[in-house]
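Before the break, one more example. Copy the sequence into your notebook; we will annotate it together after we see the structure.
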Amino acid sequence: MMELNASCDIEESCSTQNMLEHELWPLDPIDPKNAKFPCCLVWNPLPVVSWLAPFIGHVGICREDGTVLDFSGSYCVNVDEFAFGPVARYLELDRRQCCFPLNLSAHTCKHGYRHTEYGTAITWDDALRTSSRHFESKTYNLFTCNCHSFVANCLNRFCYGGSMSWNMVFSWLDGPSYLGYYPSLYS
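Here is what the structure looks like once it is written out:
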């Protein structure tokens, strides 16, 4: 008589929590010389405005391959052409602080339903692609719909840091303070 052996006992070999988490593949190193900043927020100064108020600038967010995306004008999301010149500062974001469920019932964040309703992403680049499509139909407005709004929209799709409260004002007030007061976080 033939005896059957299980090749993998799911209950014993891996916990449910590990099954619900994505495997995050390694990223290429940050390469400022070639303008590649995988999973980073990036910043550069605005001519004249940043001379008068150094904490104000233009922000963008980068894909996993390091390509910079930024909302720089009506119906325009730049890909790898950062408006106003090269990246002056960057802040690497931790992908483990994002909610990327394998399916809609596998949310790990406290905003499960709201996150699904807003637009859950399954990968970093998926969230950026969805936000880019959303902003390609937006009219740019310096005060209400700008590069900070674009980055906040991306962070909300990630549910970054367990929060879906990212907005233009929060990213405008707190984003530059991260870049300005923690020099060890950027180069």
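Strands lie at 40-45, 57-62, 68-73, 76-79, 89-92. The helical segments are 10-13, 16-20, 49-52, 112-119, 124-135, 147-158, 168-181. Try to locate both features in your own notes.
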